[in-house]
């Protein structure tokens, strides 16, 4: 869990990470040990609380940098480009299905015509 938390800290702006990441990691490790003494339910509650706090502080820190809109726009464009890049694969699969249906329909019409 400590390694996962350290990875999540990478989501903070670089200047914030340089200043606070080491201290935050140590605080997390100590608090996790205290939660483990209370059993799995305490660890689960601790993890949920940490994730909520992390989400709020990430948003706050990115807003402080004034780059939240740029970061969100970059993420949006990246997702859009991936969606467009992967779309032809889906189209090819549907095109094959559609052509197979058309071939089946065409062969059925030919059989019906020959039976007459």
Description:
There is one protein chain. By secondary structure, the chain is mainly α. It folds into 2 domains: 1-66; 68-116. The chain contains 4 helices and no strands. 3% of the residues are buried.
Distance N to C terminus: 74 Å
Indicate the proportion of strand residues: under 5%
How many domains? 2
- Helicity, in percent? over 70%
Number of strands: 0
Elements, N to C (H/E): HHHH
| Number of discrete helical segments | 4
What characteristic shape results from the CA principal axes?
globular
Give the biggest beta sheet: none
Radius of gyration: 27 Å
Q: Which structural class is indicated by helix and strand composition? A: mainly alpha
Mean pLDDT: 77
Query: Which stretches of 5+ consecutive residues score pLDDT under 50?
Result: none
């Amino acid at each position: 869990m400590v390694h996962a938390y350290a990875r999540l800290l990478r989501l903070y702006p670089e200047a914030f990470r340089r200043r606070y990441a080491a201290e935050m990691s140590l605080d997390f490790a100590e608090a996790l040990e205290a939660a483990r003494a209370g059993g799995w339910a305490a660890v689960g509650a601790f993890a949920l609380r940490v994730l909520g706090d992390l989400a709020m502080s990430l948003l706050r820190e990115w807003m402080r940098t004034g780059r939240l809109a740029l970061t969100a726009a970059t993420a949006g464009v990246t997702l859009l480009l991936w969606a467009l890049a992967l779309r032809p694969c889906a189209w090819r699969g549907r095109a094959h299905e559609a052509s197979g249906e058309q071939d089946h329909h065409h062969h059925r019409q030919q059989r019906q015509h020959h039976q007459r």
